[in-house]
Amino acid sequence: MSVDLVILANVVIAGVLTGIVYGLMALGLSVIFGVARLVNFAHGEMMTLAMYASVILFFTLNIDPFVAVLPVATAFFVFGYALQSFVIHPFVTRPEHSQFILLLAIAVIMTNGLLIIFGPDSRAVSLDTLLESIELGPVLIDRGKFYAALVAFGAAAALFGFFRLTRTGTAIRACADNWLGAKIVGLDVKRLYALTFGLGCACVAVAGCMMTLLVDLTPALGPAYTLLAFVIVIVGGLGSMSGALAGGVLIGVSEALAGFYFTPSAKSMFSFSLLILVLLFRPRGLLGNKL
Amino acid sequence: MNRRANRLLAALGAVLLVLPAVADNYLLSIVTLFLFFAYAGQAWNIMMGFAGQLSLGHSLYLGVGGYAAGALYFHFGIGPWAGLWLAIMICALSGAAIGALAFRYGVSGVYFTLLTIAFAEFTRVGFDHFAWVGGSGGMFLKVAERDQIDLLNLRGTPAMFYYVILGLAAAAFALSGWLLRSRAGYYWQAIRENEDAAQALGINTFHWKILAITISSAMTAIAGVFSAFYYGNLFPEQIFNLSRSIEIMLGPIIGGIGTLFGPILGAALLTLVAESTTEVVAALGWETPGIKQLIYGIVLFVVIVLLPNGVWPALARKLKVTK
Question: What's the CATH number for A3-120+137-281?
């Protein structure tokens, strides 16, 4: 293999691995939208909160993010369940823009709350065990990225399994397909919505713990990741689970390539132009089914 | 509106007109900020409040408008009164183009809102790399004497800027009032309440929605020009930021979406909250970045939960100014 090709392979693999973590984050957004028809405008902010939880566990109790995943995801599940039950549920019947603004208010509170508590300085987690790269012939794979992607993929697979194989998962899918029908056959829609929101938050928590291995953490990350999550789910197809993962990988690779061939600061321009094109020409997303 | 409302409005106008004679520069700068958001909120309200199209990308027009007039002044010494027309033209065209693309392909609701954000963010990153206007390092407009009034180049005292934005806010209020009672206003409200029904009645919804976004973006362009010359500098990270779009829409949401007084009342309340927060925080020694935005977030949250129609409709009943 020529040197150029090896570098390209490195960049693409790094993009795919980051993209899988992106995909899990977007999966949370997609599940919440698919079932509760709610646009979680605080999604990136929730992930930033999870990242802070993971970083604090690391620096105070020396718990590494791979272990922190469990308590943080559990806490976020409870948080999401409570948020949907007590705050968001009354908004289910309100106009779309009303829900949007509610979540926006929550997002603004979270970002600036984090800024006030932790200050604007960036933090990063580095584990000694992850310093050595995995060598795959001439291609080098970052160990942290690899494990992060593995965990993210496992969490996504578990969620797929839950929705396909369990009775509760089937009930939630019924809610998503036909809200009125679900109510008529006696499903507790309010509880299922809360459960879904909790699961979406747990997804974002796992993604957040893994993201601490990939990027430096500042309170300002929130809005950027909310937008990124939207780009991914719309490109992949809002409400489609496999679409979110595929969209994540696509955006991850396109960001990595744009950062490599142009300049890293321009990489989001590519994601946004992709979003604009998809919204205009294939608004259901690349893998989206009919809404 | 009845006579009581007219009298209230006249009193407000009189106070605002004589204010520079009695107020110091600090107070004047705060009221200027209030009028700026009252103006920009009025522009946003035409799109969302009247026609029901939620834009979260109004910072796009603010920034493009500011940069258009700013660049003409910076590079060629062409004053803002000429640059204004370029700013209006570019923004009206981009607004119409975004609207045409979105509405032609049936992008609506949340998807439309996300599209407006995407265009604003795309442009923000673009301007970060647009070297002719300074890129991410920003563009600085020549500062003239702060005590000489050069109305032609919009350089001068705080009182001059104050009267300019007061005039703009008053004009936007009058324009909104006229629009709301015009043919367009009734069509917009029909579209806002039920687009399918409006279309079934024979209203060309595509056409009227484009008109709303064009007027709104052209008005926001003027706000951008004002902001560029008032502050004398432009940074893509600031003027195109999503938080600018949020600030623009906060006033009308808190005041009351779709009402004439909502954007004014909302901007006044927000300015009041922001300033008193600044004072209290300074007095207590809690000064830290983010506290003002945190308070904004909490205010927005409380209003949307408790008063989803905004403060004005409730206040109007108390003051007995509605029919």
Answer: 1.10.3470
